[in-house]
Amino acid sequence: MGELQVNRQPGAHAVRAPRQPRSMFRQGPRVRAGLAASALALSLALAGAPAQAAPSTFGPVIGSALLCRSELNNAYFYQYLTQFFGPSYKREGGAYWFRTDATLWGAQVKEVMVSDDSSDLVFIAALTESKPEELEKSLRSGAGTAFRAVDGSRYPLRKSNPGSTIAYANDKSKIYCAKFKPQAPLR
Questions:
Q1: Is the pLDDT of residue 24 over 50?
Q2: Model pLDDT for residues 42-53, shown as the tens digit of each residue
Q3: Those residues with Cβ within 8 angstroms of residue 6's Cβ, 6 or more apart along the chain or in another chain
Q4: Nearest one of 95, 67, 97 to 82, comparing CA atoms
Q5: How far is CA 115 from CA 94, 97, 132, 149, in A?
Q6: N or C: which end of the chain has fewer CB within 10 A?
Q7: For residue 37, what pLDDT is reported?
């Protein structure tokens, strides 16, 4: 730590140790308890934290897949979503569900689902906070993709030429792209 310092002033004969810098490890028990409580509160807050903000690649990667403009590879999308949003919070309906905090085409995306291997389909889907009519308008202006109503019902599915579908999910929208898995070549 250092050598002893001798006070060389006339008439003074005291010897003292050099001043030690304060560190959090040398603090008293009250300070250490406060630091430990702060660390515990921070770790609890992070554990219950909402999904992480979307990376800059979210639109080109996930958005293109939802519009059926890229190859559908569920293993790739699972790895991508896990890397940027953490592990899926549930596995249900043949899919892994991820909480997201993202925006696509001006619509808030709260969840993204990626197919597991239990189905004949490979798909990626997203739940948005906008109504299907609003999402359709956003997609037409933001991505240049047109959708048409499949039937004349009150809640029609809307499909694009590449195969992307917008469906009602209560008062919100679900957009997805689904394709059959490629068959193994015959031998």
A1: no
A2: 333 333 444 467
A3: 15
A4: 97
A5: 6, 9, 22, 25
A6: C
A7: 47
C-alpha 114 chain-centroid distance: 13
Cα–Cα dist 19/2, whole Å: 9
Residue 80 has pLDDT above 70, yes or no: yes
Amino acid letter, 161: N
> Tokens representing 119?
């189905």
> Which tokens hold the place of 26?
């040398």
Q: Is the pLDDT of residue 70 over 60?
A: yes
CA–CA distance, 35 with 43 (Å, rounded to integer):
12
Three-state DSSP at 75 gives helix
Instruction: Give the residue among 127, 124, 122, 89 at the shortest CA–CA distance from 111.
Output: 127
Whole-number Å distance between alpha carbons of 28 and 21: 14
Q: Taking residues 10-32, what's their average pLDDT?
A: 49
Within 8 A by CB and 6+ apart from 80, the residues are 61, 62
